[in-house]
Write a structure and sequence with these properties.
CATH architecture of the largest domain in chain A: Roll
Number of strands of chain B: 23
Chains: A alpha+beta (123), B alpha+beta (480), C alpha/beta (425)
Number of helices of chain A: 2
CATH superfamily of the largest domain in chain A: CPE0013-like
Strand content of chain A: 35-45%
Number of strands of chain A: 10
Order of helices and strands of chain A: EEEHEEEEHEEE
CATH topology of the largest domain in chain A: CPE0013-like fold
Radius of gyration of chain B: 22 Å
Largest interface: B-C, 60 and 54 residues
Number of helices of chain B: 12
Number of domains of chain A: 2
Structural class of chain A: alpha+beta
CATH class of the largest domain in chain A: Alpha Beta
Oligomer: heterotrimer
Strand content of chain B: 15-25%
């Protein structure tokens, strides 16, 4: 049975509505794309969409209450909520350096959560 | 056991409290909101009227003209900004010129000093942005502008210093005569007993009177909507600019505020719900079209906010200020619509007389404190004075509200003062933090944090105003 | 009195880059004034990624982008004062500022770079009828509460306006477990970047209602709901379409306004179209020696362009300090906005001998166009045309004019227009 999916391309501002035709989960055809990069984007979006997750974790005993963090790499989109839960109770104590690993292997993806700013101990 | 219980913390209730605090009396003021000046007293035209408008012989006429005379000295004493900038009633055609003539006569009968006619040239010389077709104006030199909530707060603070007790968030649920001498006022926070009860409940005065079994009357809320422009356009009006009035209202005016903005409004519409302070689309259109009749080029893209206030208009047409014939010790101060704010000092004076007539013995305090604690307004100070103040207290060097240049020192003071602020709006009314062009976008998180720190509560407890208006609903991660 | 060669007002991305550039161009005595307790400006609360693609060819988060510049600045001998609010600047380049430790600061400087950023449009500016309860936030204020303070302003949310901050907050709130009911946009197109519409709304099935607006606010203490309606061709609500949407929070993402209160005190002339100062090619305002860059000049969608522009301002200030004034206004070549263009920066070129390099023009279109022809016309005829694909008002257009193009024509004015090409299909 074939299935149609639509992907709004973000490769350029044009924002093509690319149509992807799937058969039992395999891509049969990709239509309405504006360029080759769009084809690649649509393929990945349909087969294995990934996103960088950015969030915050609590900082203990500082003026700055939250430390911004991100996944070092994009992780599967469907795991974003799982990852949010996994970081829910994390807290850190300064000093923290930008890029420090705050939590390893988020949601079993092999991707680490890293700090996106430096926090000196004396803030 | 109190001598006097005052119901309602608007300008009338607070003025009476302050006047009575000059005597050796036990006084409690009960208020249903979290602060004073939360009803009609906070949302009105902020004009101290000269008194040519009210029908001669009415209480409105008498108390307006008398009340007006108190303001310069009272504001000086209480450190409240007041600007005696005068008012103009503008006439654009023959019919309006006639009406303005009637107002002149009425004003003379009412005893308004200094009234004069201005011609087109004179008007446009002082008010160059006014519609050029203006033909005549009635000039009233005794009119002025004030910050209505700051004035009310000042009265409350000063009366509190002089021993008046305040009970907030305590709506009155009953007023009963328990003995020949005493009344009980039932509130959500417990019962209060007193010899005299003064009903200054504004929009709800009719309901309180009914609860007490006193004379019945009806208060009809009459809504007025307003738009305020950015301070940058403060030059558009120097004086209080009235159109020629209609039968029910003074009309939509263009008017400066004592803080340097210009506003337009109010319209005038009877409504049913005494809590409906919503602004409506039709209302906005109405006041814009009204305002344009006076100043044609209004900077409509630079409106910073809109609001609505409700006038406590009584079916009797005049103020109701009298001791009840049915319930001894119960005194009504109802139907205090415009010019109620201006009249308030004279109303308080009248209440003192009524209390004496009703048998209350008054004995002056010898330790009455006439001034409230000093208030610093950083934005109005020169740099030398600022420098000195910061040396004394570095918090005055930390600007929290950029638009209105309000410092941390002023915000902390607003919380620590007598009857200090407990909410974001309370801070706003005391300091102007959040009243500028960004409307608190920049400073509200900081004000909230200072409130939480000073009151030693969690930030999630801090409210915009009354219960149920918490600003933050939880910590992050809580909803995961 | 403190004497400085150059003062930069604002330590966000614009101020940081401008100060760094000026230093690199040889300005020795620089003071940067920041009102917050640390540098970085609004980037500190923009914890999402997508910054730096143009400047660093990689995707950074806001704090990461800021930290690169902060580190660079700290290596230089640039004086920074934090927690300090500038109260006043004059056209004589005197600055009055205040802080807790030093009290009132009187600073006399030879040049100033304005980099104060912008503020958000509020409910008042939109005249939305209804009550004034708690629960109405501009998107940026909500972002600060969530990302900096760690609090949730709400859990059941409607967003008015599809500006980028609103879209970013739709995702952030959703990931934090709140319900975002919809984004309501007056225009027939989104005011945010396409990638934000996709990754912040479509990813989470948040509907975007175009040609809709909020017509009433309900709830006396805390927001209880909003009435949303479709609008007609005059942007007036069609009352028959009014729908009540319950919510505890309304976020406003309805535009940003350059914050020029200080600029006005220095008698800097502003452009009604941008809301920012009128500047020449080196980002110098009408008050000589006062420069502007970043969101105080015009509102940007990408921080990379802020950096680029701030470098021009930094270099401009350095040139001003070393080589002096440009020619007077008589020599200015105005850059005029014609059909299809909402605004353009710089608004004029000045001092013909200074046009010795390639010049950048930043502009926005008035509406989305699939294909547009950009025409740079002049009194000496058309200087340049360029075909642009997929122009959107929300995405700034950056076009460079080469030295030869300007010099050969030697124009007295330029006129810029954008013409839609062909049909939409």
């Amino acid at each position: 049975m074939t299935e149609e999916k639509f992907v709004t391309c973000i490769v350029c501002p044009k924002g093509c509505r690319i149509k992807v035709i799937l058969d039992e989960g395999d891509i049969l055809d990709i239509l309405n794309y504006g360029c080759k990069r769009g084809v690649e984007y649509a393929r990945e979006e349909v087969m294995a969409p990934k996103r960088i997750l950015t969030t915050t974790v609590a900082v203990q005993g500082q003026n700055i209450q939250m430390l911004p963090v991100k996944t070092e790499d994009a992780i599967p989109k469907e795991l974003l909520k799982v990852a949010m839960h996994e970081t829910k109770d994390l807290s850190v104590e300064p000093p923290i350096k930008i890029g420090d690993v705050i939590w390893p292997n988020i949601a079993g993806t092999g991707v680490n959560i890293i700090a996106t700013r430096t926090l000196d101990a004396n803030v | 056991m109190d001598d006097v219980i005052i119901i309602g913390g608007g300008v009338v209730g607070c003025m009476i409290a302050r006047e009575l605090s000059k005597y050796n009396l036990a006084i409690t003021l009960v208020e249903k909101n979290e602060d004073v000046a939360c009803g009609t007293s906070k949302a009105n035209s902020a004009v101290i009227h000269a008194g040519f408008d009210a029908k001669p012989g009415t209480l409105k006429a008498k108390l307006n003209v008398r009340g007006n005379t108190f303001f310069p000295a009272l504001c000086e004493e209480l450190d409240v900004p007041f600007k005696n900038n005068g008012s103009l009633v503008l006439a654009f055609d023959d019919e309006e010129i006639n009406t303005v003539g009637e107002l002149m006569e009425r004003g003379k009968t009412n005893g308004v000093p200094g009234l004069d006619y201005w011609d087109t040239d004179k008007i446009l010389e002082v008010e160059p942005y006014l519609k050029k077709t203006v033909r005549r104006a009635l000039y009233a030199p005794t009119a002025g502008i004030i910050c209505p909530y700051e004035f009310t707060i000042a009265l409350a603070e000063n009366s509190y210093q002089n021993g008046v007790k305040y009970l907030f968030e305590a709506p009155v649920t009953g007023v009963e005569k328990i003995t020949d001498e005493n009344l009980v006022v039932r509130t959500s926070k417990g019962d209060l007993q007193g010899k005299y009860v003064i009903n200054a409940a504004g929009l709800f005065a009719d309901e309180i009177s009914k609860l007490a079994g006193a004379e019945e009357y009806q208060i009809i809320p009459r809504k007025g909507e307003y738009l305020i422009f950015d301070k940058e356009y403060g030059y558009l009006a120097q004086m209080v600019l009235f159109p020629t009035p209609s039968k029910i209202s003074k009309g939509i005016l263009v008017c400066p505020t004592v803080d340097g903005n210009v506003f337009i409004g109010p319209n005038s519409n009877n409504i049913d719900d005494k809590t409906d302070v919503s602004v409506q689309r039709e209302g906005i259109e109405e006041i814009i079209s009204g305002g344009k009749k006076i100043v044609p080029d209004l900077p409509l893209k630079n409106i910073i906010t809109s609001f609505a206030g409700l006038r406590a208009s009584s079916t009797k047409g005049d103020f109701i200020i009298e001791a009840s014939q049915k319930v001894k010790g119960f005194i009504n101060v109802g139907g205090i619509e415009s010019p109620g704010f201006t009249s308030s000092p004279a109303i308080a004076e009248m209440i003192v007389e009524i209390l004496i007539n009703e048998g209350l013995k008054l004995e002056k305090k010898n330790n009455f404190i006439p001034h409230r604690p000093r208030k610093y307004r950083f934005r109005e100070m020169d740099n030398e004075a600022r420098e000195k103040l910061i040396k004394q207290n570095p918090d005055f060097g930390h600007v929290i509200c950029r638009c209105e240049t309000v410092t941390k020192g002023e915000i902390v003071d607003a919380i620590r003062r007598p009857l200090g602020a407990r909410s974001i709006d309370g801070i706003k009314r005391r300091t102007r933090a959040g009243m500028g062009r960004c409307q608190g976008g920049f400073c509200s998180p900081k004000v909230l944090a200072i409130l939480a720190e000073e009151l030693k509560v969690k930030p999630t407890v801090i409210r915009k105003a009354n219960g149920g208006s918490e600003v933050l609903l939880g910590k992050i991660k809580e909803y995961l | 009195m403190i004497y400085k060669e150059l003062v930069v007002i604002g330590g966000g991305p614009a101020g940081l880059s401008a100060a760094i550039q000026a230093y690199e161009e040889g300005v020795q005595d620089i003071l940067l004034i920041e009102r917050d307790f640390e540098l970085g400006g609004i980037l500190k609360q923009c914890i999402h990624n997508g910054f730096g693609l143009h400047i660093f060819q990689e995707e950074l988060t806001g704090p990461e982008y800021a930290e690169r510049f902060i580190k660079e600045l700290k290596k230089m001998n640039i004086e920074v004062i934090l927690d300090t609010m500038v109260l006043e600047i004059t056209n004589e380049k005197k600055i009055i500022a205040v802080n807790k430790e030093l009290g009132i600061l009187n600073i006399q400087t030879q040049a100033i770079i304005l980099a104060m950023g912008c503020r958000e449009r509020t409910r008042g500016a939109l005249n939305i009828p209804g009550f004034r309860p708690a629960g109405i936030f501009t998107a940026g204020t909500a972002q600060r509460f969530v990302n900096i303070e760690g609090y949730m302003p709400g859990k059941d949310i409607v967003i008015l306006g599809s500006g980028d901050i609103g879209l970013i907050m739709a995702r952030r709130f959703t990931l934090e477990g709140a319900k975002v009911r919809c984004v309501v946009e007056l225009m027939p197109y989104s005011n945010g970047l396409t990638r934000n519409v996709v990754q912040c709304l479509e990813d989470y099935d948040i509907p975007l209602y175009l040609r809709h607006t909020v017509i009433e606010i309900h709830g006396k203490d805390r927001l209880e709901g909003v009435t949303v309606a479709e609008v007609d061709d005059n942007n007036l609500p069609i009352l028959a379409t009014a729908t009540y949407i319950p919510c505890d929070t309304l976020l406003l993402s309805v535009g940003l306004i350059p914050e020029n209160e200080l600029s006005k005190l220095a008698e800097v002339k502003l452009d009604d179209r941008t809301g920012g100062p009128i500047v020449n090619q080196r980002m110098e305002t009408s008050t000589q020696g006062i420069f502007a860059c970043g969101n105080v000049l015009h509102v940007h969608d990408l921080v990379d362009f802020v950096t680029q522009e701030a470098r021009l301002a930094g270099k401009g200030a350095a040139d001003y300090l070393s080589k002096g004034k440009v020619d007077n206004y008589a020599d200015a070549i105005p850059v005029r906005v014609l059909k299809g263009v909402r605004y353009i920066v710089p608004q004029y070129f000045q001092g013909k001998e200074m046009l010795n390099g390639r010049q950048e023009l930043f502009m926005r279109s008035v509406k989305p166009m699939d294909k547009a022809k950009l025409i740079i016309d002049s009194d000496k005829g058309v200087i340049k045309t360029k075909t642009l694909n997929y122009v959107k008002p929300s995405e700034m257009i950056n076009v460079a004019l080469q030295k030869e193009e300007l010099c050969q024509a030697n124009p007295n004015y330029l006129e810029i227009s954008l013409q839609e090409v062909g049909d939409r299909s």
